[in-house]
Inverse folding.
């Protein structure tokens, strides 16, 4: 998208100039003021705590969060509530945004649901202001920070993933508290030397100026929470005026969208649409808040008096303001959510991609292992879909006939016209590129995965290989098949039609299993196909013997049939193996259970032996 | 919930291997239940079916399910023992 490209260029240029300038200014500030140094150190510790907190929550994204997210796709209100609750718990709207973008990129949720979550996250993030203003400044927070850090770090060194996750969260909270403590101390000491309120600007010029400062601070720190905590501690130390603090909070809200925009850069168009929605929502909310600032401030006074907040408790009033203006934003934007979806879809149209280009693999999903696995699964299904056309046309069967409920023996017998297909060219055009992308993505994604998750990724990669093998086997079969389905020899024609009908039925049944993906026993039903595959192989060999003996087919035909029956066996085996991996959905433990129960070659041989003994 | 039971739950939660085994056990149980239902349905169908070809097909499916259940029960016992 040109807007994102332009924005990316500007961001890169600014980053080059801004970083050295900020470092220089900070160094100068530390030299002239030890209090400023303490405030800056507080902000750094706070941001470090945020990183720990995000790391901790990432440890739990391997299940619960994804399951919850999937259930929030059916209604806007659910999506909104999920955004509020998850951001309240994780205290990071950025993390929720990035996860939502990656889910959208992987095709797990729709745009409307994603927008609902982002709206909710905006409200959820305001609870941070309540916590800092209500708890952080009223209680001696540093007293809790130390034990939290000690217990947290001990847990971080534990083997268990859950304990490690708890450790990161606990240590993260400890660092947040410690950061707030240092900022508070710094601003209080600052009060004795410099009065920052001297720089306060009254009226609308002040509002606009401080809004811009809020945007800038949040863009630099990549955290609206950090900006808010500075605003609240500075406000508590009476270093900024209440009015300017309100403007800073509005600015922080706009600035926070930068994280989502940066996160969407590596995502597909869906992720970019969501970042666009985030920006529009926050801009509209900010414009409303700036225009009606004094009216909203009056509303804050009224709400504060109702809930019992003292008239001079400006820090809590700022928290009330932060919540109120986000609620106003949600109320103003919620009725237009579908209009917003349509607008974004029009402005950022889906690039018409060739069938051979990946739909679900993008860098935004690579960081979340389970989402990455799901994206690879969907992409491999896409690969199978492309392969399906090649396989069916290679058998001179129509795709719609295979997927219908017509008798495939009749279809094969009636469709005697050879379909012209260059399997090599089709493979190069529709399969090879996509398969290479899957292999490349799985190699990159596995580096951040647990061994079990990496195993699942390898299984999916093997499923992709099975699809490719099935195409290659079909290609080998194709030459003889094209020749013999129009042969004058009834026997060889019937045998090749039998192969076509059999492979068609395999693909049809795989389609049924794919449709029933949610039922764990549907994948197990593929075991019947394994048994039939072996029985069919024995039958073909028996028929072949009698056809040669009775001289119904020439020796040349017999060798062709022998080879092609072996290829048909391999195609079936590859497709069944693929189906076992690709059509198994749900939790990893359920997939493990299915694979544990599924019959292997030995079990199938046991059934065959028992059957032959009965005969 | 009583304290020993609560402690056991907490222990299971923090012990990643135990938690995994527990989840796997629950999943195997769920699959086994579904297979049993399918088995009963197929048995009833087999009783009513007259067509020999169809009877053979049902019998084959029953054989497979029977073997799958046997395998599943064996795996379940192994997990319970460990």
């Amino acid at each position: 998208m040109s807007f994102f490209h332009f924005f990316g260029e500007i961001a890169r240029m600014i980053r080059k100039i801004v970083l050295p300038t900020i470092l220089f200014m900070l160094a100068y500030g530390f030299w002239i003021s030890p209090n400023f140094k303490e405030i800056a150190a507080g902000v750094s510790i706070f941001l470090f705590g945020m990183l720990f907190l995000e790391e901790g929550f990432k440890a739990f994204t391997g299940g619960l969060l994804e399951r919850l997210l999937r259930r929030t796709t059916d209604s806007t209100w659910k999506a909104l509530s999920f955004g509020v609750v998850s951001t309240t718990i994780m205290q990071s709207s950025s993390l929720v945004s990035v996860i939502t973008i990656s889910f959208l990129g992987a095709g797990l949720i729709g745009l409307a649901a994603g927008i609902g979550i982002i709206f909710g996250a905006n409200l959820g993030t305001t609870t941070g202001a309540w916590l800092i203003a209500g708890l952080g400044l009223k209680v001696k927070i540093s007293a809790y920070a130390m034990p939290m850090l000690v217990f947290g770090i001990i847990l971080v060194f534990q083997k268990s993933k859950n304990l490690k996750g708890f450790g990161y969260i606990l240590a993260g909270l400890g660092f947040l508290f410690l950061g707030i403590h240092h900022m508070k101390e710094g601003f209080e000491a600052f009060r004795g030397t410099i009065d920052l309120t001297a720089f306060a600007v009254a009226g609308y010029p002040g509002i606009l100026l401080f809004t811009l400062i809020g945007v800038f601070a949040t863009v630099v720190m990549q955290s609206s929470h950090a900006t808010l905590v500075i605003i609240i501690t500075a406000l508590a130390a009476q270093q900024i005026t209440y009015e300017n603090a309100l403007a800073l909070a509005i600015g922080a809200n706009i600035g926070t969208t930068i994280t989502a925009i940066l996160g969407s850069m590596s995502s597909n168009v869906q992720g970019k649409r969501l970042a666009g929605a985030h920006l529009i929502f926050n801009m509209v909310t900010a414009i409303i808040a700036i225009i009606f600032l004094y009216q909203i401030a009056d509303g804050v006074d009224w709400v504060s008096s109702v809930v019992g907040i003292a008239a001079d408790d400006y820090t809590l009033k700022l928290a009330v303001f932060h919540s109120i203006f986000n609620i106003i934003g949600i109320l103003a934007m919620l009725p237009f959510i579908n209009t917003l979806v349509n607008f974004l879809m029009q402005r950022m149209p889906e690039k018409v991609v060739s069938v051979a280009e990946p739909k679900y693999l993008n860098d935004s999903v690579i960081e979340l292992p389970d989402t990455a696995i799901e994206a690879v699964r969907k992409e491999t299904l896409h690969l199978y879909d492309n392969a399906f056309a090649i396989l069916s046309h290679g058998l001179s069967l129509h795709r719609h006939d295979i997927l219908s409920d017509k008798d495939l023996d009749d279809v094969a017998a009636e469709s005697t016209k050879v379909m012209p297909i260059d399997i090599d060219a089709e493979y190069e055009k529709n399969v090879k590129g996509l398969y290479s992308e899957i292999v490349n993505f799985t190699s990159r994604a596995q580096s951040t995965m647990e061994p079990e998750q990496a195993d699942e990724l390898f299984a999916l990669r093997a499923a992709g290989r099975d699809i490719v093998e099935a195409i290659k086997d079909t290609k080998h079969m194709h030459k003889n098949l094209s020749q013999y389905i129009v042969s004058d020899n009834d026997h060889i024609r019937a045998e090749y039609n039998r192969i076509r009908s059999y492979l068609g039925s395999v693909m049809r049944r795989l389609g049924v299993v794919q449709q029933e993906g949610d039922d764990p026993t549907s994948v197990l039903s593929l075991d019947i196909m394994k048994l039939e595959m072996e029985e069919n192989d024995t039958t073909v060999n028996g028929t072949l013997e009698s056809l040669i003996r009775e001289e119904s087919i020439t020796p040349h035909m017999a060798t062709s049939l022998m080879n092609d029956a072996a290829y048909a066996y391999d195609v079936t085996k590859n497709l069944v193996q693929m189906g076992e991996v690709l059509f198994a959905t749900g939790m990893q433990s359920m997939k493990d259970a299915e694979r544990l129960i599924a019959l292997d070659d030995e079990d199938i041989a046991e059934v065959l032996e028992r059957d032959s003994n009965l005969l | 919930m009583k304290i020993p039971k609560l402690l056991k739950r907490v222990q299971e939660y923090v012990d990643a291997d135990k938690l995994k085994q527990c989840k796997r056990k629950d999943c195997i149980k769920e699959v086994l239940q579904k297979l049993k239902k399918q088995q009963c349905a197929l048995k009833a169908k087999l009783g009513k079916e007259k067509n020999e070809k169809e009877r053979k097909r049902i019998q084959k499916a029953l054989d497979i399910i029977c073997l799958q259940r046997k395998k599943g029960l064996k795996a379940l016992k192994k997990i319970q023992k460990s």
